[in-house]
Amino acid sequence: MPLSTVLFDLDNTIYPASSGLMKGIDSRINEYVKNLLDLDDARALQLRKQYYVEYGTTLHGLQLHHRVDPDDYLAFVHDVAIEAFLASDAELDHLLSELRAGKAIFTNAPASYARRVLAVLGIERHFSHVFDIHYSGLRPKPDPAAYQAVLGALGIEGSAAMLVEDTAKNLPPARALGMTTVLVGEADERAAALADYVVPDVLAATRLAIELQRAGHAGAPAQ
User: Fold this and answer.
1) Is residue 122 a contact partner of residue 96, using CB atoms and an 8 Å limit?
2) Could you give the dihedral angle defined by the CA atoms of residues 112, 114, 116 and 119, in that order, rounded to the nearest 10 degrees?
3) Which of 1, 13, 86, 152 has the most CB atoms in a 10 Å sphere around its CB?
4) Which tens digit of pLDDT belongs to each residue from 73-132?
């Protein structure tokens, strides 16, 4: 089936992890948890990592166990100076222009933050949709309902979509729906097994999408 839409994760995917932006957000998350629950640094870090592993996001765990206001949390942790970490990416802008398939952001972050990132990178114009944590009803990836909601909004089957992600655990629900899955970054054997393709960065992922588009997108490679 022809490739209709490429779904790009945002943090550490649309921009390189080496930028340090996600580390800045991680620090804000730690600070929020520490202040909310009056914990020391070590315990705050331990708890937020526990919630991330168990629930997909720290926010989901805080909602379940501490009735946190999601808007308050999201505003605080994403209040970072994006321009201090990222700059316009002309090469990515050019490659996205070459990719004729539809392009959308699929992220557990809020849309307002996602659009700030895209604007700083100079690529906002390429993305017809930003599917954020609010769009999914605060159900984060890898909740299958979030993926189904995105496909429903786009009016496409999973086999017509590609998901580009840096987090391996977010790939199985996409693959189950027939999406082609692309893992960005270095991966161990177990993580790589969850992806149809493993690439070093978003530039390589976009080039791959262009190649599959030109080839008629026969789907994921045989395993």
Assistant:
1) no
2) -130
3) 13
4) 999 999 999 999 999 999 999 999 999 999 999 999 999 999 999 999 999 999 999 999
Cα separation, 1 vs 105, in Å, equals: 21
pTM: 0.93
Q: In the chain, helix, strand, coil percent, each to 5?
A: 50, 10, 35
- Among residues 173, 222, 216, 214, the alpha carbon closest in space to that of 197 is found at 222
Which amino acid would we find at residue 139?
R
> What's the residue count for the chain?
223
The token pair at 179 is 């999406």
How far apart CA 163 and CA 121 sit, in angstroms, is 20
- Please state the rounded mean pLDDT for residues 49-69: 91
Handedness of CA 88, 27, 74, 205 (dihedral sign): positive
Listed residue (158, 15, 183, 161) closest to 93, CA to CA: 15
